[in-house]
Amino acid sequence: MRDHASPRVRILVPRDATRDSFSLPPGANQTLREAFGSTDLLSYATAIWETPNRTIRFVLELPVSRRWLAVELTATDSAVLPVTLLAGEIVDLPHKLTARELEVLTLIAAGLSNPAIAEQLFTSPRTVSTQAETILKKLGATSRTAAGVLAVQRGLVKLPLPVASEAFAPLAIGELARAAAAPTPDDSPLAREPDAVRVGLAYALSGPGRSDGLLATRGAMLAIDELNRRGGVRGRRIEPVPIDADIYSAAGIRETFGKLREHDVQGVLMNYVFDERAAFDAAAELEIPVLHTMTSSRHLALLAADPAKYRTLFQCAPPESNYGPGVARFLELLAPGLDEAGTRRTIRFVETTLDSGQIADPETRGLLEAAGWSVTGVDPFDPTSADLGATIDSLTESLSVDPPAVLVVTEFQPDALAALLRSFHDAGVKSIIYTIYTPSMPDFAATLGDAAEGIVWATVSGTYGDVVGEDFSRAFTAAYGEGPGYSQAGLGYDLAHILISAWQHTADPSDVAGTLAALRSTRYRGVNGSYTFGTDGQSTVAYPEETSDPSLGNAHLLFQIQDGEHVRLGPPPYGDGVFRWPRR
After folding, report:
1. Are residues 159 and 27 part of one domain?
2. Is residue 309 domain-shared with residue 368, that is, in the same domain?
């Protein structure tokens, strides 16, 4: 459905246009500026000439405004020079498709099976099967083949592609993506201002980390806009450089940092990756400040082992080693009620195999056993497994037979965690569910529906519910039309303020040594708590686990989902509700 507030745009792009030579026409609207400034649209417009197709239609996701641009590219020789006619308009996704359903439909059009789609999207075949059935109903298609044909005919295929372009070999969209694989407008100086201070926003805008990446990008953009209205960095405009970071492999991470180097950014903001060591080594090679939120104990170890090499890295969220003591703190709250009900103090862990998700370490187990808790199992959970559905079924069966009093689940991929928790709920598993971080995403509880009720979750860096956090939430919602969630948007906002404040205290943002010194002396109170980097590890600390002073750390917030709302249970003084025992 067309958005009538945003008119259809049409421009001509020369076949030989480059990032250096092409400029948007005078008076180009914000839609075009965002499309050319934060996506590969210029590359697509020129790459069509390298394919056998003369017209290609697709839907382009605009990562910052989170809108959809329906695009039609037509290569024509009718002008004096060969040009691509680019027509586009902002649309709502037709047939009430969701963003994830559009990704699945695009993969169906490429001929991928449900297990293959699940593997590519880091989810389960069961989840994909349900999504595929929903898509067929929405399109009125009688088969997957028919749905794929309709998608191609109507331009209901998504760019950027959700997986590698090789999977789309038979389709025009795949040929276009491969031809456009050269350096893209993500790295281009199309809108670069010579005197601007450039901040790299290295967040995933596609793949399973997309939701978090978009939230962090938006939070950082909001902060940068505020700071530019106050004069930027001593009169110099701050230019955000959003990169669709490939956080999923060592090669992708290195490629991302290569893009940042090519763009000549003076500082980088990023969240998490699937290969921390690759990211830390690549970040160190940039030799500019890199602020990240990986909650990584590996960060601390590397800074201790080689402080000179990793001196430019600053971790703006406490390490995951605090999650275990956080579980112990929650169990202290539960113990009297369990004892009164005659329930044994038993706990079981289901832990992701990805980095930063293992909390049932010897120290945590020692804490729990000293408090009278029995750890009945620690089960690994690989969200990338081709047998994810079978793994979920096996865990559900085991827990149905012998449910612990408390079940701790650490899994960061929202689709995988939702599938797991939905299965436990449907099977009637009676345990109190405790998980970490993932429910901070704005639509997670709504996606789970009634299965979310009563879930307890914690994050070592969450957005506060005080006046600072509430002011941020209102500003974010006014800017983007939806709420910021409870973690990543606030982190992106805070990181931008921290880095730019450090630049304000140096002679020039290109003064790396001065910027690093300013960062190490940081005392910043943001929407996700307080940040200091004076320790050898250059990492924010957790309250109350690593500091007893709430003004010096990020509060390790504890939430419970009650009637669809996220209620903060603590720690004091940041709680706004009390734990609600689940109905048995």
Report:
1. yes
2. no
In a domain, residue 581? The reply is no
pLDDT at 400: 92
310 and 364 co-located in one domain: no
Residues 6+ positions from 258 with CB-CB distance below 8 Å: none
Cα 196 from chain centroid?
27
Question: Tokens 């993506």 map to which residue?
Answer: 177
- Asked if 504 and 233 touch (Cβ cutoff 8 Å), the reply is yes
Task: Answer yes or no: do 39 and 95 share one domain.
Answer: yes
Phi (first) and psi of residue 283, to 5 degrees: -65, -40
pLDDT value at position 124? Answer: 75
The predicted structure's pLDDT at residue 342 = 85
3-state SS, one letter per residue, for 258-271: HHHHHCCCCEEEEC
Task: Say yes or no: 175 and 73 in one domain.
Answer: yes
Q: Tell me the HSE value of 70 on the side-chain side, using a 13 A CA sphere.
A: 17
Other beta carbons less than 10 A from residue 429's beta carbon: 19
List pLDDT tens digits, range 423-463: 999 999 999 999 999 999 887 888 888 899 999 999 999 99
C-alpha pair distances (Å), 295 with each of 226, 256, 257, 270, 339: 27, 20, 20, 12, 34
**Number of domains composing the chain:** 3
DSSP string, 107-121: HHHTT--HHHHHHHH
Residue showing tokens 């490629």: 255
Query: What SS3 state is found at 512?
Result: helix
What CATH number does residue 137 fall under? Answer: 1.10.10.10
On whether both 38 and 164 belong to a single domain, the answer is: yes
The answer for residues whose C-beta is within 8 angstroms of residue 39's C-beta and 6 or more apart is 60, 61, 62, 63, 159, 160, 185, 186
- Beta strands in 309-345, from DSSP E residues, in sequence order: 313-315
Residues in the chain: 584
Burial 462-493 (b: 16+ CB within 10 A, else e): bbbbeebbeebbebbeebbeeebbbbbbbbbb
Nearest to residue 417, comparing CAs of 244, 160, 212, 163? 212
Distance (Å, whole) CA 117 – CA 109: 11
